[in-house]
Design goal:
There is one protein chain. By secondary structure, the protein is mainly alpha-helical. 66% of the residues lie in helices and 1% in strands. It is built from 18 helices and two strands. It has a two-stranded antiparallel ribbon. The two termini are 40 Å apart.
Length: 314
């Protein structure tokens, strides 16, 4: 409510409250400011961005990105911030600015990803953002970063890079994606997005693990087979073997994978937010153009933006 009021006093109160708020509550400030309609929100973002407290800088960068009000000249220097989360937030905010300098920065960071764990993390994010803008070099960079990150057990960079490579869905990456999915915590979920029929047996075996819900959801996304507890893995393996006899090409819920299916799931009100973040990246990679939508924003605006994206021709 306060971020919808035009009064300067309301803006000052929000800044004061954020400065005194416990870090675990700051997500609420980011959400409220991103959804607010008052022009004074710009001033709040500037004040938080000038704070010495990294958590407040991250809030400011998230709000600027979600509102698409990013001053590249102010944000770009924050990529060198000593706090890695601030640096990543700055990179993601810069993607909204979409300048030629931003594209060159993304390319440079992806090339330099081998220098250190921090460089690997930022390089992986830069590769993701490049790929989302329709640049095929982003996926190629993500492949290289994923290979190096897995070899060095850098699971932070590996997680970001795996997401890019998996949702890109290139069948040539089968061994790489499987290896990454088994190494990265929660990585099995991405096999469902990858969509190669060959990973179905890996997912069926994954049901024997400590977190069977992940592979069962991924298996459903891939094959359309819905497995309920108590899990009979031998029976699931038989179902998967039968499905594989008819499967061909990239699959989504047992049907041929298409951009229309991805966008349909993005629009569905029952789709989980974690899945929607993967789907949004996937849609951009398939269409080779950016999708400017705030997945945590007002639903009516999201739907309008998704409809406009679907209607746009390559």
């Amino acid at each position: 409510m306060l971020s919808c009021l035009r009064a300067d006093a309301a803006a000052r109160w929000v800044v004061l409250a954020a400065e005194r708020a416990p870090e675990e509550t700051l997500h609420a400030f980011a959400s409220g400011l991103a959804l607010g309609s008052a022009p004074t929100v710009r001033g709040v973002v500037a004040a938080l961005l000038a704070s010495d407290r990294p958590a407040l800088a991250r809030v400011a960068l998230e709000v600027a990105r979600r509102r698409r009000q990013v001053d590249a000249s102010v944000v770009a220097p924050l990529v060198a911030h000593p706090d890695g989360d601030v640096a990543e937030a700055a990179l993601r905010a810069l993607a909204v600015a979409g300048t030629e300098q931003t594209s060159r920065l993304f390319e440079q960071l992806a090339r330099e990803a081998h220098a250190s764990p921090r460089a690997a993390r930022l390089g992986a994010v830069a590769a993701e953002l490049s790929a989302a803008r329709g640049d095929a070099s982003g996926v190629r960079a993500a492949r290289d970063i994923l290979d190096r990150a897995l070899a060095s057990a850098d699971l932070v960079a590996a997680e970001v890079a795996l997401r890019v490579v998996a949702v890109a869905g290139d069948p040539r990456d089968l061994e790489r994606v499987q290896r990454g999915a088994l190494a990265v915590p929660g990585g099995l979920a991405l096999l469902g997005f990858y969509g190669a029929p060959e990973v179905a047996l890996v997912l069926a075996q994954g049901i024997r693990g400590a977190e069977p819900e992940l592979p069962t959801r991924a298996l459903a996304r891939l094959t359309g087979l819905h497995v309920e507890p108590p899990y009979d893995v031998d029976a699931v393996m038989e179902q998967v073997a039968a499905w594989l006899k008819t499967a061909s090409g990239r699959s989504r819920f047992g049907k041929p994978h298409t951009l229309a299916a991805v966008l349909g799931e993005l629009r569905a009100p029952t789709t989980g937010q974690d899945d929607r973040r993967h789907l949004a990246l996937e849609a951009q990679l398939l269409a080779r153009r950016p999708l400017d939508v705030d997945l945590d924003g007002w639903v009516a605006r999201q739907l309008a933006e998704l409809e406009a994206f679907a209607a746009e021709r390559p």
